[in-house]
Amino acid sequence: MKASKQLLIMLCVSIPSFMINLDGNIIAVSLSSIARSLHADFAAVEWVISAYTLTFAAMLMPAGTLADRFGRKRMLIVGLVLFTGASAMCGAAHSDTALNWARALQGVGAALQLSAAMATLSHSFRGLARARAFSFWGSVIGVAIMLGPVAGGLITQYLGWRWIFFVNLPVGVSMIALTLYAVEDSKDPQAKRLDIAGVTTFGGSLILLTLALISGNRAGWSNHLILAEFIGAAVLFAGFLTAETRQVRPMVDLRFFYQPTYVGANIAGLAYGMAFLTMLTYLPMYFQNGMGRTPLDAGLLMLPMALPLFVIPRVVAWWLAPRCSGRLLLSTGLALVGLGLIWTSTEMRSFAYTPILVSMLVASCGAGILNGETARVGMTVIPSDRAGMASGVSGTVKFSGIVIGFATLGAILVSRVQASLADALPGYPAAARKELTRMITGGNLHAAQVLAGQRGGSSFAQWSFGSGYEAVFFTAGAIALIAAALSWMLVDAGETAPLGAESIRDHIAVMED
């Protein structure tokens, strides 16, 4: 294949992946502006994130099957069309409901194009060329992670939050045209029919669980509807497990979960999404709502914290992986994330940037180790003919962790703010405290302070806000530390022995965003 054609193919798969990851990061610094513009409360803002990651996580594995069966080029184009069209709908939305439905459609498009892009990359390159192509793709993802907060801040502050979606339109149209020209279609002749039962039961379970976690604070945890949603999620997940055991070639081969190393790697991936990646969304809201920074300032403040996510995976690939077992790398990465986040939690009430930066750099270094290791360690015990399935499971677990983490930690934020207000405003009417909680968690601290007058002191709103974020970061850190211990116990050091020098390039090829 000519070098020029190879470059065009890499652009066709890397730029859409860049946009997917940029869209996931760019939104974080815009959430406060979106909430004010659409008069949305914290629960509605949660869905701006969760609707996207929920459909992305639910569709990632079936999207791979669709690409294998109907053609990678065709699904890449379908994904681009859906993602681009949904981006236009997001930018034009005039209610939080319309925005959240458009974000859900955007997540479906993102899953289709990402799965098709990865399959296209694997099909189009071989040997060393494949390793270089995946390394290039990984670098592009790293740039997207770093640029997301800054780009989001610039666009939101000077053009308005709607343009964080509108910028996808010219890129999407250009990529559709380039894909039609440059990419050759390919299929997997062994691909079976879509696992409808698995898709519907897994997706339904994840949706009901997320809905219950987000709605529980507003409706009450003993509310019959909330309890029914939790029970429904458990029943559907049990149905998913049953459905997968009856498939000839299941979407998720549950036999691999009898291997402790594979379980440990997926626990690490789940905790990585729940504990760290979720914090990349909470921090920009903290900077804007708690510290009074502009969207651009919040993006710039996030930039140093994202840098290790770009640098550390290269250090792991070239220096640590040949010397350390996967067991040690996973456990160390999770331990650093946990310690860094718990350290950060102790600084939440100070509203001082420098100590938060230092503690988050510790967590980011741990996340940089986990970036590629969660997928690689799990793949070490999976046969090569099921590598696609294992990769899909890894991505789904990570993004499911973001969905569950964001909803769970949101519930903790609301509960802690409520408790702080009860301490600061004893005797204050419960209904009024509930309204204050809604204001504070939504970032409207000044309005909450004005509503309560001089009750509770001159800064009770900011104190309650800081207490809520303290609980969020402490819980996230505890999740990471528990996962570190479980990974150490489950992952076998022998099965994940240090890579030989000849395997380094293969290791780079499985690095993920």
From TrEMBL:
Its main location: membrane. Residues 9-495 form the Major facilitator superfamily (MFS) profile domain. It holds the Pfam family MFS_1. GO terms for molecular function: transmembrane transporter activity. The chain crosses the membrane at residues 7-30, 42-63, 75-95, 101-121, 133-155, 161-182, 194-215, 221-241, 262-287, 299-321, 328-345, 351-370, 471-491. InterPro entries: MFS, MFS_dom, MFS_trans_sf, Sugar_transporter_CS. This is Drug resistance transporter, EmrB/QacA subfamily. It comes from Paraburkholderia phenazinium.
